[in-house]
């Protein structure tokens, strides 16, 4: 079993991003600029946004954070998005999810200029991805592709089983792993909560990508010996054992699955760190006008 070490790989990629950002600054006289909007004070969202801002600083990007409390109206939020869309100094805009119940996340996502949609959630970017056109690949799937590349894993001809069908991870991942590229060229099975005989389906996987949002959902009896296991889950539970007061668990029962796998990502220290790298690479691509 070899660990797919997100900490190591993300640090390597960030060194490269920092060099390219420095070159961009020298050529253009400005830094790539990422803007985040955070509504409310969800613990997970606070942590993610703080990490994104810190990583921007680390690679030499400019970052801005706009915070709103839960009482902000949908109209006010949409107005802010339009204002940022029109700001030529901004390369990327992310609105951290989840949003309060009175705000429609689809409306907000669609309001973001596709040229600044560095999370890769806008229907135009997802549509371009479906057609294998230049686009911002959603940050988590992009991070997973970068991880597979870093370990020189040739996925050609493999059977990839994706567990979870979200628009953020499962859906895009199933498209990316099937496309004519490497990583890619897999036969893909997309499974979800309504799949019959889920265990039998997952057992077929040479690659298993778990993105279902349930702690330790993928157990050892669902994984064939030698499988590559990518755990996208980040499930927070309160804990007295940690300084932060909570502990993170993946969607995979790591302790029992790891001995059976050829490669596996840990939680924390795996896909989460690669997601941030995907976001940074998209922001740099936007600044350089590589996609649009």
Structure characterization notes:
- With 292 residues, this protein is an alpha/beta fold.
- It has two domains: 29-113, Rossmann fold (3-Layer(aba) Sandwich); 139-273, NAD(P)-binding Rossmann-like Domain (Rossmann fold, 3-Layer(aba) Sandwich).
- Helix content is 39%, strand content 16%.
- The chain contains ten helices and eleven strands.
- The protein has helices at 6-28, 43-58, 74-85, 105-111, 123-130, 139-150, 170-178, 198-203, 254-257, 271-287, and strands at 2-3, 33-39, 62-68, 92-95, 159-163, 187-191, 207-210, 228-231, 235-238, 246-249, 263-264.
- It has a six-stranded parallel β-sheet with strand order 1-11-8-7-5-6. Strands 3-2-4 form a three-stranded parallel β-sheet, sandwiched between helices. Strands 9-10 form a two-stranded antiparallel ribbon.
- A hairpin with a 7-residue loop joins strand 9 (235-238) and strand 10 (246-249).
- Helix 1 (6-28) packs parallel to helix 10 and helix 6 crosses helix 10.
- The mean pLDDT is 96.
Strand and helix map with partners:
Layout: E1 2-3, H1 6-28, E2 33-39, H2 43-58, E3 62-68, H3 74-85, E4 92-95, H4 105-111, H5 123-130, H6 139-150, E5 159-163, H7 170-178, E6 187-191, H8 198-203, E7 207-210, E8 228-231, E9 235-238, E10 246-249, H9 254-257, E11 263-264, H10 271-287
Parallel strand pairs: 1-11, 2-3, 2-4, 5-6, 5-7, 7-8, 8-11
Antiparallel strand pairs: 9-10
Pathway: One-carbon metabolism; tetrahydrofolate interconversion
Subunit structure: Homodimer.
Catalytic activity: (6R)-5,10-methylene-5,6,7,8-tetrahydrofolate + NADP(+) = (6R)-5,10-methenyltetrahydrofolate + NADPH; (6R)-5,10-methenyltetrahydrofolate + H2O = (6R)-10-formyltetrahydrofolate + H(+)
């Amino acid at each position: 079993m070899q660990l797919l070490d997100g900490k190591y790989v993300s640090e390597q990629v960030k060194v490269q991003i920092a060099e390219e950002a420095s070159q961009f600054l020298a050529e253009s006289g400005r830094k790539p600029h990422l803007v985040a909007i955070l509504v409310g004070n969800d613990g997970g969202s606070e942590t993610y946004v703080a990490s994104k801002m810190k990583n921007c600083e680390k690679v030499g990007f400019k970052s801005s954070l706009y915070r709103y409390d839960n009482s902000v109206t949908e109209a006010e939020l949409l107005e802010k998005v339009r204002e940022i869309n029109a700001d030529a100094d901004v390369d990327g805009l992310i609105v951290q999810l989840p949003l309060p119940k009175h705000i429609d996340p689809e409306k907000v996502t669609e309001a973001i200029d596709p040229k600044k949609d560095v999370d890769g959630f806008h229907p135009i970017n997802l549509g371009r991805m479906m057609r294998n056109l230049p686009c911002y690949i959603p940050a988590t799937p992009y991070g997973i592709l970068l991880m597979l590349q870093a370990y020189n894993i040739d996925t050609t001809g493999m059977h990839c089983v994706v567990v979870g069908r979200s628009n953020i991870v499962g859906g895009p991942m199933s498209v990316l792993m099937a496309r004519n590229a490497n990583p890619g060229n897999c036969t893909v099975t997309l499974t979800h909560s309504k799949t019959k005989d889920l265990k039998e389906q997952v057992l077929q996987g040479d690659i298993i990508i778990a993105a279902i949002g349930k702690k330790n959902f993928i157990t050892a009896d669902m994984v064939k010996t030698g499988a590559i296991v990518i755990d996208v889950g980040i499930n927070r539970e309160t804990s007295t054992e940690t300084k932060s007061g909570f502990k993170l668990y993946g969607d995979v029962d790591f302790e029992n699955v790891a001995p059976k796998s050829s490669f596996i990502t840990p939680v924390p220290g795996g896909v989460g760190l690669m997601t941030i790298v995907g976001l940074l690479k998209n922001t740099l691509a936007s600044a350089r006008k590589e996609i649009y």
